[in-house]
UniProtKB/TrEMBL annotation, chain A:
Name of the protein this chain belongs to: ABC transporter substrate-binding protein
Domain Acyclic terpene utilisation N-terminal: 5-434
Top-level taxonomic group: Bacteria
From TrEMBL, chain B:
Protein name, per record: AtuA-like ferredoxin-fold domain-containing protein
Pfam families named in the record: AtuA_ferredoxin
Domain AtuA-like ferredoxin-fold: 3-102
Length: 440, 103
């Protein structure tokens, strides 16, 4: 058994950069590469693509990521674990084999399935967010349970160089190879709790190495254009030392690690995954060298008997329109335009939202007093049942060209189909995760 | 003297459904006590009253040190159905940092 296992994370979301993972595989001396590419909403969108075409429904960037990584993964004996299977892990495995054949490479891929529980729901289950039955959010389009380490371990015991999953709890993508390599018992709650801390720190990739951290003159960091993604050297006792490839940009510090440790965490003493209820309150982070941070102290309590399920439903459409005003009284003219739109659309769009980008939009109010900026972009959004109705928002904004205040320009209009998400719980005994091997 | 949290601390926002999480991490560990005293769940709820309609809970993390605020009903319905420009609420870390405290 190796003394330490090195796991890198080369993607923290579906749209992440491609090249940091390539650099990790080429120069990072990894044992495992993880690509975390599945957000709450992404899987429902993938389910829609699968419904339109049963051979699709995996991550849209899967082909490009695999093409860029496969030769080096195989040459350097790095195993890849990824949830890029999204709504269709088996089709993803077959696509990877197709890519390998095209590149004249030989590969074994394990697809982990069993997270799709759509057929097991009655619709009467309670939505955690509202306390109401799921069918209140009808029509439902997808239901995917968060699988854990126990679903990935059997696939790791095969010769597969790539393990591709659908919905799996993000930290489990990292806990699984650790439990496999070090023989950790899934009942050892403190060990699995520390593994979960490691996974949670790595799962957003660049967010550990200075991505989403910089604030000029306050939080400066070098060469963000070539941000390196992180890896961790983990010992059998769970001690983890995080680092990044020399020469890559960004910064790995106690401060960047603190922001990531708390990212999207509710109660830090009870971070619930399918593997454990992890406790972050005893975690210690220490800078051990430049761009090197050690993490210890993760603990845990026994895992829950239920698994969280993300349920997607059809939520209609959102229509948007935008238009810019610049120069003297730009905000005044934009507000007049907003008032005109309000007057014309409020009866048909009760939730109409009007933002003045550059003045008040993302925070929904201002904190304190700020001078008016040189230019303002009016942005209007409304929810609709049909695409046709949603289109009215953009049409009304565009019509301001000849019917609105002076000097508006650069109209844009958009229509989005909306997939809503609610959560529910399912007893873990109802799930039967499996893996399927494919070879090329 | 009044001072903006922006001077003393940094923050990252996260989202879970309609719930917003905000870390608050002092640049200097010595300022943690000051943040604990002045940046309470109540003061944050009051500061963000136009954004957060639900409860605000504060978690203390003396081991880091850092504070974590969990704000319910803060994301106008959540990431997919919200009409806001920033449905994740990712910019809201800087709304927290606009808060002023006595230093």
């Amino acid at each position: 058994m190796k003394e330490t296992i090195r796991i890198g994370c080369g993607a923290g979301f579906s749209g992440d950069r491609l090249e940091p993972a390539v650099i990790l595989v080429q120069e990072g001396k990894l044992d495992y590469l993880v690509l975390e590419c599945l957000a709450e909403r992404t899987i429902s969108l993938a389910q829609k693509r699968k419904r339109q075409d049963p051979t699709k429904g995996y991550d849209p960037l899967l082909e490009r990521r695999i093409e860029s990584l496969l030769p080096d993964l195989l040459a350097n004996n790095v195993r890849l674990i990824t949830n890029m299977g999204a709504a269709n892990p088996l089709a993803a495995a077959e696509k990877i084999c197709e890519i390998a054949r095209r590149m004249n490479l030989s590969v074994t891929v394990a697809a982990v399935t069993g997270d799709d529980v759509f057929d097991q729901l009655t619709g009467n289950e309670q939505a955690l967010e509202t306390g109401k039955p799921l069918t209140d959010s009808a029509p439902l389009i997808s239901a995917n349970a968060y699988l854990g380490t126990d679903a990935i371990l059997p696939a790791l015991a095969t010769s597969a160089q790539i393990i591709i999953t659908g919905r799996v709890a993000d930290p489990s993508l990292f806990v699984a190879p650790l439990a496999y390599e070090f023989g950790w018992s899934l009942d050892d709650v403190n060990q699995i709790g520390q593994g979960t801390v490691i996974g949670h720190l790595l799962e957003c990739a660049g967010q550990l190495t200075g991505g989403y951290f910089a604030d000029p003159d306050k939080k400066d960091l070098p060469d963000m254009a070539h941000l390196g993604h992180p890896f961790a050297d983990i010992s059998a006792d769970g001690t983890a030392v995080f680092g990044k490839v020399a020469g890559t940009g960004g910064l790995l510090s106690v401060a960047t690690a603190k922001e990531q440790l708390l990212y999207e965490v509710m109660d830090p003493s009870r971070y619930i995954t399918p593997d454990v209820i992890a406790d972050f309150t005893q975690v210690h982070l220490t800078q051990t060298a430049p761009n090197q941070v050690r993490a210890t102290g993760g603990r845990g309590q026994v895992r829950p008997d239920t698994l969280k399920v993300s349920v997607g439903y059809e939520a209609g459409y959102i229509g948007e329109g935008e238009l810019s005003y610049a120069g003297s009284n730009a905000l005044g003219r934009a507000k007049l335009a907003g008032a005109i739109i309000q007057n014309r659309l409020q009866d048909r769009f009760p939730d109409l939202r009007i933002d003045y980008i550059g003045s008040v939009s993302v925070h929904r109010k201002t904190f304190g007093t700020y001078p008016d900026p040189y230019e303002i972009r009016l942005r209007v959004a409304g929810r609709a049942k049909t695409a046709e109705q949603a289109a009215l928002v953009g049409e009304e904004v565009e019509a301001l060209y000849t019917n609105g205040p002076a000097g508006g320009g650069g109209a844009r209009k958009y229509i989005h189909e909306v997939v809503g998400i609610v959560s529910t719980l399912i007893p873990r005994t109802k799930l039967t995760p499996q893996f399927i091997l494919r070879h090329a | 003297m009044k001072i903006k949290l922006y001077k003393l601390a940094h923050s990252r926002a996260g989202d879970k459904g309609n719930t917003l999480t905000l870390s608050l991490i002092p640049y200097n560990d010595e300022d943690y006590a000051l943040l604990c005293t002045q940046v309470t769940a109540e003061s944050v709820k009051n500061h963000l009253r136009d954004i957060v309609s639900g409860e605000v809970t504060r978690y203390e993390m003396p081991n880091l040190p850092a504070l974590q605020f969990v704000c319910q009903q803060a994301l106008t319905g959540g990431v997919t159905t919200s009409l806001t420009m920033d449905p994740h609420g990712k910019t809201l870390s800087y709304a927290l940092l606009e808060m002023e405290i006595e230093s």
